[in-house]
Amino acid sequence: MFGATLFALWAGVGNGSAAIVIVQSGVFAEASRQLVRVLAQVELDFNSVERIVEYLDVPQEAPLIMEKRPPAWWPSSNGGIDVENLVIRYSEGLPAVLKNITFSVLPREKIGIVGRTGSGKSTLALSLLRMVEASAGRIIIEGIDISSIGLEDLRSRITIISQDVALFQGTIRTNLDPFDQHSDQECLQVLDRCHLTPLLRRGSSAEIDVLQMPVTKGGSFSAGERQLLALARAVLRRTNIVIMDEATAQVDQGLDDQIQATIRDELRDTLVITIAHRLKTVMDYDRVLVLGNGEILEYDSPRRLLQNQGAFRRMCRASSDWGQLVNM
Q: What residues contact residue 164 under an 8 Å CB cut-off, 6+ apart?
């Protein structure tokens, strides 16, 4: 507007023409400001379009159902797990998280997986459910390569109890048995065996129906109680392979001992793989797999590993429970 005014005075145009120039320059300035504002908003709105395009290019998971389907009894209590030259990386071009892992798990064995942070413990558990696909190698469960079957057939036959347990809005009954496949009596028995009934009835003087206790969306249970509910859900499902990803990391030592006793009693004929948060958790297991930097450092019984001057013994020596670990 300043430039247009100076130009009108310098050119010696008439008063009316000068007024028109000045007014129109103001209109143009306001239109320019509006145009910049609209362009900026369009640029922001196109972020959502960019995200949609990125999601369209995301590689999809394998099919839920494939032509080759495992038998209804698979995996049975007599089935083991064979991991052969397994290589896992989270994306092409990134370094491998698991590097040429090879080991076997016998039927009904209790296996503990230990290691420092970043050693690949949780990645190994995710690979058993094909949450992360193998870059090389294979995993065989009772004679069937898990990459040759659908995800629904695989994940419905294996139970995983994660460290961060998700509960659904409803009742204890709907969280234990969401598909209504078991009776109320079975659900109550599982709650008793998992030491949950006293915790749920705590602070209530009257005899309440535990199964109908509400579970709110925000969560009305502590982290330890949620993990116990997940354990009860796993016991109720009666799958022959159970993966526990630091499932007792947020409970106290006394409750952890009770959970381990429940695992030994209720999952006696089940193959259990436990990613240990406490070394005491796996000291009475059949074998312990020690991972370091994505590789297997040791794999043997806890007794033999303590006798060796290896990584597991060094981890136990660094623990405050060294004396108790040796006694166990």
A: none
Specify the fold of 81-327. Answer: Rossmann fold (3.40.50)
User: What pLDDT is stored for residue 36 in this prediction?
Assistant: 96
End-to-end CA distance of the chain: 88
- Alpha-helical segments (H) within the chain: 2-11, 15-56, 121-128, 151-155, 172-176, 184-193, 197-200, 223-237, 253-266, 302-307, 311-317, 322-327
d(CA 156, CA 123): 19
Q: What is the pLDDT of residue 86?
A: 93
Mean pLDDT, range 248-261, rounded to an integer = 69
Q: What is the DSSP letter of 246?
A: S
Per-residue tokens: 209: 């129906």
Residues contacting residue 180 through CB under 8 Å, at least 6 positions apart: none
**pLDDT tens digits, one per residue of 168-220:** 888 888 888 888 888 888 888 888 888 788 777 775 544 567 888 888 765 56
Instruction: State the residue for tokens 């009954």.
Output: 173
Q: How far apart are CA 193 and CA 158, in angstroms?
A: 21
Domain boundaries, the chain: 2-56, 81-327
- Cβ count near 157 (within 10 Å): 20
